[in-house]
Amino acid sequence: MRDVTLSSLERLGLGAADAEEKLTFCMDEDAFRLFYDRTARPVWAYLARITGDRQLADDLLQESYYRLLRSRAVLEDEAHRRNYLFRIATNLAHDARRRAPMDTAPLDDGIEHDQPDPRTAGDATGRAVRRMDLSRAMRQLKPRERSLLWLAYAQGSTHFEIAQTLGLKTGSIKPLLFRARRRLSALLQEGAR
């Protein structure tokens, strides 16, 4: 991941004056940098998980921030900007999936996991196996199920935030999460056999 700067925006086709206007429309440059620092890693992890491709996640992350800066949406606070950013990222991931089929290679989610302790090597092996099983099962889920589970449990988003991000009704999130958890559980049990 790299920082989005004015020079990055200029390479994407915005003039310096237009880029300045876009940055100040949502927030000033310092506020944007702080927002980027707080949100880039979770958004990237989300994109990497739902697309299954780390390089694509890098590209989609940068495009997400670019589109956020170009938007004319009225974003009241950081939570609203964060939800809007996840919505943009989700839409970009869906567009990318339509263009190319998802790779079924094992996914390294880019999240630093605990380093194994030599005294508990058996536990480390068990954790690694569970992570691989979870990764395999997540790849077998439908894209919307992966998104729901990731937003709810990895990001800790509320049902309202998930609904806003995925463009669903808030009342439908609970049953959709229930079904996604049940399907994930079944896939994990199949893998254990």
- The CATH architecture name of the largest domain reads Orthogonal Bundle
Helix content: over 70%
Low-confidence stretches: 19-25, 102-120
Give the domain tally.
2
End-to-end Cα distance: 38 Å
Overall outline: globular
What does this molecule look like?
With 193 residues, the chain is mainly α. The chain folds into 2 domains: 1-101, Rna Polymerase Sigma Factor, Chain: A (Orthogonal Bundle); 121-193, Winged helix-like DNA-binding domain superfamily/Winged helix DNA-binding domain (Arc Repressor Mutant, subunit A), CATH 1.10.10. 74% of the residues lie in helices and 0% in strands. The protein contains 9 helices and no strands. The longest helix is centred in the N-terminal third of the chain and has 23 residues, at 29-51. The protein starts with 5 loop residues before the first helix and ends with a helix.
Concise synopsis of the structure shown:
With 193 residues, the chain is mainly α.
Topology:
Blueprint: H1 6-11, H2 16-26, H3 29-51, H4 54-70, H5 78-99, H6 121-140, H7 143-154, H8 159-166, H9 170-192
Helix pairs in contact: 3-4, 3-5, 3-7, 4-5, 5-8, 6-9, 7-9, 8-9
Tags for this entry?
9 helices; single chain; Rna Polymerase Sigma Factor, Chain: A; mainly alpha; Arc Repressor Mutant, subunit A; 193 residues
